Amino acid sequence: MNRYTKRTLLLEAAMIAAGLVFAFPVYILVNLSLRGDGDTSPALAPTMSPTLANYADAWRAAGLSAAIVNSAIVAVVSLLVIVLVSAFAAYPLARGTARWSRWAYLLFALGLMLPAQLALIPLYQSMRDLGLLGSVWSLILFYSGLQVPFSVFLYAGFMRGIPAEYEEAAAIDGCGPIRTFFSVVFPLLRPITGTVAILNGIFVWNDFLTPLLYLSGSTQQTIPVAIFQFVGQYAADWHLVFAGLVISSIPVLAVYFLMQKRIIQGFAGGLKG
């Protein structure tokens, strides 16, 4: 029977302290989102007269309903492209024994080292020439190309830990390479696919700079850009900003709570792999 020791007490105290550190920004976010315009008390002070009017004003003024739909379309389509392309590209890189497969893998790894900011102007000009500025398809194309090298790196590393006997058995049964991949290999990639989806999904959902560049001046906006309109050159309506941020976090939290078990298992399995 385990006894309650001083070490257990210290561990519990450390975990409580860590929980308070992570909960502090959430408290500030929610506290200020409920504060009225006339309340000038410090941010740490609890709001004595909370109001939900900020949420309604932020929803209406920023057009968050359309922004949430645009962000969801960009995130879902980008993740589908990233997962399928990255997994399919990593398969021959992880299983190939030819010299070209190693050089191709290094070429993908090189994409992790090049900062995306260097290509902002050329990519903007390319999107303009393609007529994609002001469209969510420009964001989907950008995120798919940007995140594929990172995802290929994760998939290839995970595939190398999967025994090749599964594919050999499928080949004996008459499966070709493509059918073997989708019927045998891809189901085994579920843990790392969860990791790829989580990391890329959070990045795409929260990104601000790219939508600001490619959707500027259009009616299609993502959530970060829609909320940014409350910040002016000389003044900012922070109550509406924080209310908008709370609203923007609700879809992500809803997806997390609905798929909490699978997300945790996939993320833990992907990191272990």
* Percent of residues in β-strands: under 5%
CA(first)-CA(last) distance: 34 Å
Q: Which architecture name of the largest domain does CATH use?
A: Orthogonal Bundle
The name of the CATH topology of the largest domain is: MetI-like fold
Uncertain spans, ≥5 residues at pLDDT below 50?
A: none
Q: What's the quaternary structure here?
A: single chain
CATH class of the largest domain: Mainly Alpha
Give helix % range.
Answer: over 70%
Integer count of domains: 2
Question: How would you classify the helix and strand content by structural class?
Answer: mainly alpha
Q: Please write the string of helix (H) and strand (E) elements.
A: HHHHHHHHHHHHH
Let me know the number of strands.
0
Concise summary:
The chain has helices at 6-33, 53-62, 64-95, 99-113, 120-130, 136-159, 165-172, 177-188, 190-206, 209-214, 223-228, 238-258, 260-272.
Give a structural overview.
The protein is an all-alpha fold and 273 residues long. It has 2 domains: 1-51, no CATH class; 63-272, MetI-like fold. The protein is built from 13 helices and no strands. It has helices at residues 6-33, 53-62, 64-95, 99-113, 120-130, 136-159, 165-172, 177-188, 190-206, 209-214, 223-228, 238-258, 260-272. Helix 3 runs antiparallel to helix 4, helix 3 (64-95) runs parallel beside helix 6 (136-159) and helix 3 (64-95) runs antiparallel to helix 9 (190-206). The two termini are 34 Å apart. The relative contact order is 0.14.
